[in-house]
Each structure stands twice: as structure tokens, then as C-alpha cells.
Amino acid sequence: MTETDRTIETLLAQGGHFIDPGTGAIVPPIHPSTTYARDERYELIGYEYSRSGNPTCAQVEEVLARLEGAEEALVFASGLAGIVTFFDTVRSGEHVVAPRVMYHGAADWLRRLAGRRGIGVTFFDAAAAPGAARALEAAVRPGETSVVWIEASVNPTWDVIDVRAAAEIAHAGGAVLGVDATVTPAVTLRALDLGADVVFHSGTKYLAGHSDVTAGVLATRRADARWEDVKLARTLMGGVLGPFESWLLLRGMRTLHVRYERQAENAMAIARHFDSHPKLEAVLYPGLESHPGHAVAKRQMTNGFGAMLSLLVAGDAEDAKRVATRTRLFVPATSLGGVESLIEHRATVEGPHSVVPQNLLRVSVGIENAVELIADLEQALG
Ligand SMILES: Cc1ncc(COP(=O)(O)O)c(C=O)c1O
Known about the structure:
This protein is α/β, with parallel strands linked by helices. It has helices spanning 3-13, 55-68, 79-87, 104-117, 133-139, 163-172, 225-237, 243-253, 256-274, 294-300, 317-326, 346-350, 370-381, and strands at residues 72-76, 95-99, 120-124, 145-151, 176-180, 198-202, 216-220, 280-284, 308-313, 331-332, 342-345, 360-364.
């Protein structure tokens, strides 16, 4: 284990090593106050108004910035609130590049921007090996593309994009690289170290980890003009994370490292067991040596291949849905990253515009006993 890993483990476990100077408490308080007093000179004592920032948000933002190796981090009321706020900084006439298969909510937002704001959007094929670099290169318009937005492992086919190569291509074209690292948090993939300018997380998933907080995170390598614009946009659009949710997010992050390792171990056991299963067309998991993105994933993921995988059921949408309704341990529900295992028929959840195969079941692996999880999927497939 490297020094960096140790630092992250300790940083997370101790929630930033908080000790309240007044009381000695090792868990930070929640500050619900929406407004903040001024002193006798009418200067602000600390904060002003909670929509522009509050001490509980700042607490988790500081730990997030250290976790990512970022200059600053911001938390949002949801992942999508973070994405929408970030893309608000793109001006009409500019061009954005993103993968064709990606988190569908972000893709929907980009299409909406394109239609309403005169922003050009090109979707590229992340399945193009190696690491999607050539397809990305062809999509970037030098001087016009201002943002390249990728997922290191695209949701829900888990094709792998080479983050370092993507950063080089984006920068050569004069664009910034934003990485949605929701399923590849910094305990395994350090997007900013790999060259990304901005890293994003749906904090709803692994960071919080217990399916009880909706949150978003952006962290930046440099607090540059675009970042100042993002900060202003958060205040003006109002998508800030509430104090209680900020507190819960920090609490959840204390166990991120161990949760993620266990979840990735379980996912690997499941992927290996069901690889070549007669009832499946394929298991999509970057940890399998047979996965086309395995070599790139191995290079850029330093602590396991994550806990998301998809099963292509031998059959059609109805066959796949039948499997998802027969499980007894896997909960048939959307979302991911919690300690409990979930299974979903992704095309149903994404709706009529979905480009996801109809026989695909997306699986979010939790921290349960792997043998029981495997037995549950076996009986559901049987
Ligand atoms: C990869 C990815 N990005 C972004 C989001 C959006 O996050 P939220 O649901 O917290 O708004 C999700 C949610 O599922 C996601 O899986």
C-alpha cells in the first residue's frame, strides 16, 4: 500500500481529524442556522447566509478536497444539481463532448442544453478500444470544445475510458476534462492526479454509502475563473447541500475505504462465478481479464475494480425483468453504492430514450456475504 492510500484511509476514518476546540467533541456539530450575525463594525463574523455556504458544508468540503487532492470542493443538493451547475458555466456557441452510454440523467441534461442554449454536444463511443481515445479524439473540435465530460467506467456497460489519455486529448483541444467518478471514488481512482480538471460524484452513492442521503460533489484541481463561476452559479441556482445531509455525508465517508474494498471483493467473486454462465450472454465487469477495458482499468484503478457490474441475460427484456423480480436478497431497486445489494432492469429505469441493451440487469454489489449473494442470483436465474 502506498503512502497516498494510507493518508486517504486515515483521513476518511477520522473524518478529517476533527476535534471541537470548545468541547473536545470528535464529531462535528450540525449548524442549522440559515443566517449569520455581523459585528459592531457591521462586518461578517463568519458566514453570511446558508445558500452561499455554511460551516457544516464547509467541513465536508474540506475533507472532500483533501481526499481528491483538489484545491477546493463544493457539495450540492444532489448529483444532478452539481452537474447542472457545472454545465451552467458553458456558454452558447461552445461545444461539449460526452460518451454515448453514460449516466442517463446527465445525457438528458446535455441534450436539453443543446436544444435550448445553442450548445453543441457530440456523443462518442466509449466501447472503442483501447480506452476510447481514438473515438474521443475524433469528437473533440479544437478551439470550440470547452468541456469533455467522461465517466472512468461508463454506466451501465462499464466500458472503461482511459482518463489520462482523455485529459491529454481534452487539453490539446483547449478543453477542460470533467470526470464523473461516482462509481470509481478516490479510494481506487484519483481522477485529478490522472489529469482531470474537475471531478464529480453523486455523493448519494459510495461516498455516503447507506442509501439515505442525496448529495452531489464537485472538486477542482485549480480554483480558476470557471470554478469561481461554478461557485457563483451554486449560490444563484440554490442547489447547496443542507447541513444535516452534509453531516451525514461526512459520517458515511468515514467507512468509504473499507466498504468499497469489501464491495469490490464481492463483485469480483460474483463476476467470476457467473462468467460463462449458461443463462447469461455476458457478465460486464472491468475486473474480468476478458473485459476489453481490463488493462486500462488495471492501470488507473489502484484498489479494486469497483462493485458495479451488469448481467446480459440470455433472452429479452421480459426474461431479464423476471430474474430481477425473483431475487430474495438483491433488492429490485434503482441506485447504487449502498451497503445493500441492488438489481435493476436498466432500460425500464432509463425510459424510452435508453440506449442500454434490453436484456441488461445492472447490479450494485453490497457488503453482504458473497456466497449468499451468488446463491441468490443462481436461484433467480434458475
Ligand atoms: C454515474 C452517476 N452520475 C450522476 C448521478 C446523479 O446523481 P443524483 O442521483 O445524486 O442526482 C448518478 C445517479 O444515479 C449516477 O449513477
